[in-house]
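Re-run with default settings, no changes from the original entry. Doing this only to confirm the output is reproducible before filing.
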Amino acid sequence: MNRIRRRMGDVEAGSLILAIAMLLFVSLMATALLGQVLSGQVQERHATRYENALQGAEVGLDRMLAQVKAAPFASGFSPITGSTPGTNVAYSVTATCNVVNPLTNACTGLWTVLSSGTTAAPKQTTRTIQAAVRSGSLFSFAVFGRAFDSFNGGNSVDSYNSAGGSVPSYICNDGGQRDVSSTDYVTSLKNLTTNSAATQMCTPTGRGVVGTNGRLFLKGQVAGDTDRMEIYNAKENVPLPDPWPNPTGYCDGVPQTCNQYDPSAPTTYDPAVAPPHGLYYYQPPMSFPDPTICNNVPTTTSFADQTALGPGVYGFTDVTLDHLSTITGTVDNPTILCVSGQVHIPNGETVRIDAVGSKLYPEPAGGFLIFSKYNATNSPGLDFGNHAAISAGIYAPNAAFSGGSQGNVYGSMIAGSVDNQGGWNFHYDEALANSKFNVPVSVSDWVELK
């Protein structure tokens, strides 16, 4: 009996030990599971803080981007701080101008933006991002064609600055002559030189640029009469280490002219640091946005050449301009034409060419801006006759330009393609670099810093 009792006691003791072991095991498993849950919660909170910190940095970047859009030609921006609603993430953002224009003290249009987002204490997480923000006028070229049929020996490109008044803007012939025989500027411009291909600015500034994403056909004389030539989306037959996909840009014509390139030029376009003269190749193509300033502008009838237009935005189908066209817009409050059809200038006509005594000068180009939405392929959107002349900022990125045998564009012209008979001069008005209308702002080179 005692033996039976001892065995039962042993069984009970064993069961107790087993129960205690099971309890310890369950307790350890519960503790481990709780630890995993708590660890997961910690990781989740860390991941949430990590994500919120990035969102805060993005909010800071967006706020600085809005500042740049509001004042694209500012000399600088103050640092911005704030916090995001809901997540309470503090952000801090700065914008540093890469190069300041020494003439205007304004940024050339390329900013490096640094933005940080930091979550609230006690467990703070910070993430920092950097991006390149580019802004600038649509009118940065004397003439740009996404495709160029030719740029013959009679063509030329120079520049001036109308912000200095009429004196720096006087028009000369190739001998530097600016006095003419008649105060009637239509007759005077024709009499200024017997060959309008020789027309130039009396006070050139050396910043006139001709550019293209396509074929730039050059003859020998044009290199000496052009401040600068730029080819974008360059093909493999030019000295670039890594050509852009599907390249289209190349130089054709006189080999000696096409070989006048600078192999040390940067392959990323930056007008502030690129060398000032010669022929240069760039990898990315230049892109031109649609003229958003013309969105929702109602189109009325065609524009008659004797109609007076003051400051404001107007929508027309076809437009014909001549010396009787009265355009009274100013640089600060321009006359803006949104054209869905063609722009015509008849033979021998001048638009916004004025006179001071016996001296001629173009009225500031920034006072008259033409935005063309024309994109037909069977006819030119810009149709300028022989010996025609105009002072304006012309933005027609999908329209073809067709010029007569000789003529002059003062200001800037952006076109889908450019074709002329060889005697056209393009004079860039540097004051257009400060044009604040339809300024595109883009963000690139986004990177998170460690």
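Residues 238 and 281 are 8 Å apart (CA to CA). Residues 2-70 form the longest helix (69 residues).
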